[in-house]
Amino acid sequence: MNAPRGPTAAPRRGVAFSPKSLGLGGDMQIEARISKEWRRRMIFMGIMIWGSALWFASDGYLVWPAEAERYQTLVELTADQVPEGTKLTEKTPEVKRIWEAYAREHDLKTKVPKNRTAGDLAGQRGIAGFLTLIGLVFTTWFVLQHRRSVTVEGDVITGASGEKVGLDDIVEVDRRKWVDKGIAYGIYDANGKRRRLCLDDHKFIGCEAIILEAERRIKARTAATSPTDSAVADTPPDSSQT
């Protein structure tokens, strides 16, 4: 889980922005790049995927085939030593005794080998192949993400997907996912439809500065229009019109 965030926290360190982006006037210059926190999280996920793929590949191509060979040796050793139909497992004392004696003599694992069938090997190899495919897709996606960023040039925000939205076009900031996930949405109108611009400060560190600036402008516009609205509401009706 991401670290909890306050609703009006100051922009964090490690963000490329100019002093003008703090609301002191002038053109804003912000570049929100991939954060170290997000990168570490994705690297951990990648290790989990590739580690699992290697685990299944090791079983399917190395460990289990070798165990299958030992099992065939066990079958030959016990052919005349145990009754026909006896299960060749650790739970059968005579089978265990025969195998341990042979294993110590030939420097093999003393654990009674299991019967690894061709279907078992194919299953492990299939899972390894599937996880390898996922790993390749994930790694490619991860590398490509580093080409993306959220930027502000003057009064125009360029989102991670290339969409462009004016700072003054944002009419509302949705912070419902901010505390838990570090994500806020800038709400704006485009072609008569209400749309959302994702500002993910967990992934693109620096988005918080954009969010704060958008909220500052919304408050400024609200304050600028409020006195006029109040004056209109307080004006008594013209008695001459009644």
Question: What's this, in brief?
Answer:
The chain is an alpha+beta fold and 242 residues long. It has helices spanning 36-77, 93-106, 118-145, 178-181, 207-234; strands at residues 16-17, 28-34, 150-154, 156-158, 164-166, 170-174, 183-190, 193-200, 204-205. The longest helix has 42 residues, at 36-77.
Helix count equals 5
**What overall form do the CA principal axes indicate?**
rod-shaped
Query: Would you tell me the structural class of the helices and strands?
Result: alpha+beta
Mean pLDDT: 87
- Oligomer kind: single chain
- End-to-end distance, in Å? 65 Å
Strand content: 15-25%
Largest sheet: 6 strands, antiparallel
Q: Tell me the total number of β-strands.
A: 9
Give the C-alpha Rg: 33 Å
Roughly how much helix do the residues carry, as a percent range? Answer: 40-55%
| Secondary-structure element string | EEHHHEEEEHEEEH
Which regions have little confidence, pLDDT < 50, spanning 5+ residues? 13-25
Task: Describe the fold and architecture.
With 242 residues, the protein is an alpha+beta fold. It is 48% helix and 18% strand. It has helices at 36-77, 93-106, 118-145, 178-181, 207-234, and strands spanning 16-17, 28-34, 150-154, 156-158, 164-166, 170-174, 183-190, 193-200, 204-205. A hairpin with a 5-residue loop joins β4 (156-158) and β5. α1 packs antiparallel against α3 (118-145). The longest helix has 42 residues, at 36-77. The protein is rod-shaped and about 100 Å long.
